Amino acid sequence: MQKRILITGGAGFIGSHLCETLLSRGHHVICLDNFFTGHRQNVAHLLSNDRFEIIRHDITSPLSIEADMIYNMACPASPVHYQFDPIKTMKTSVLGAMHLLEEARRTKARILQASTSEVYGDPEIHPQTESYRGNVNPIGIRACYDEGKRAAETLFFDYERQYGTEIRVVRIFNTYGPRMDPNDGRVVSNFIVQALKGEELTIYGDGSQTRSFCYVDDLVRGIIGLMEVDGFTGPMNLGNDGEFTVKELAEMVLELTGSKSKITYLPLPQDDPIKRRPDLGLAREKIGYAPTVPLREGLVRTIEYFRKII
Ligand code: NAD
Ligand code: UDP
Predict the structure, then answer these.
(1) Does the active-site annotation cover 145?
(2) ipTM exceeds 0.90
(3) Whose CA is nearest to atom 35 of ligand 1?
(4) Binning pLDDT at 50, 70 and 90, where does residue 35 land?
């Protein structure tokens, strides 16, 4: 059945893929964005669709929109961007969640929060299951993002308990793919852009820290799966459980681009997690989720995209 779906942060990297997929499934999509890190260009190909609307708004201010479902994707996700104005980042997570939850309460919309693996901080258990409560430095430079997302999760579950709001919470692990902003400082986009431009690849620390990289199409399928399943709120991990060191990633990007770039080593930023890998058991059990795109294949597709835009 066709639904009216509000996607905040819809002009961003993941949000734009979500807009595209939900439109292709016949829904009416309202893309809302303040264009801090998102770009109109990311959704330009959707503008001619009658079922697509775009609204410039900042979720730190209240709003009034009738929708059947709300995907709250709005928040800068890369450390460079969320640390640019940390107070604003906290406001986006906390005030933004409150405003959208109030809308969901008023309209009885089902609402999904894009939370993050960062709620686990620098994890002491590995891989991370949803029952792990995390190891976050509340006063560090990543706290505006990590603690903001943790507070947003609290608000979601309080709205469910207090008002019966239909919530969904997904904890997204590092995701990459076409439409990542080439300047947003994340490791996959940085390495690909550096390799294609023949610049040195910047490894922070010794490159032994690990991440699990998920191709955006897999993630979007999982997010919609959680939103559409009945009787389960999450929190649910989504990502890809292949685990790679940052150095392995750099070497793979050099090989796949055929670049002659060298690697340079820079200081590791404060509170940078040493390892990260999702336990996907719950996602498999509740929505039959399994990632399908291996890192190598996802990188090839992403490199192809960056070759066109830089
Ligand atoms: P992104 O920066 O490309 O997209 C975020 C979008 O939100 C942008 O379009 C931006 O302009 C918009 N936005 C930011 N603040 C806003 C505000 N106050 N009001 C309205 N719009 C606002 O990042 P992304 O990678 O697409 O991430 C989308 C969501 O997924 C974020 O909530 C992020 O925290 C979460 N997430 C992403 C990853 C990842 O690896 N990409 C991992 C974990 C969680
Ligand atoms: N990183 C790196 N070089 C870069 C950008 C990031 O070595 O040019 C490292 C970063 O220190 C972290 C990992 O890659 O250990 C992933 O960083 P990203 O910002 O992509 O995501 P997050 O830290 O939020 O997982």
Answers:
(1) yes
(2) yes
(3) 114
(4) very high
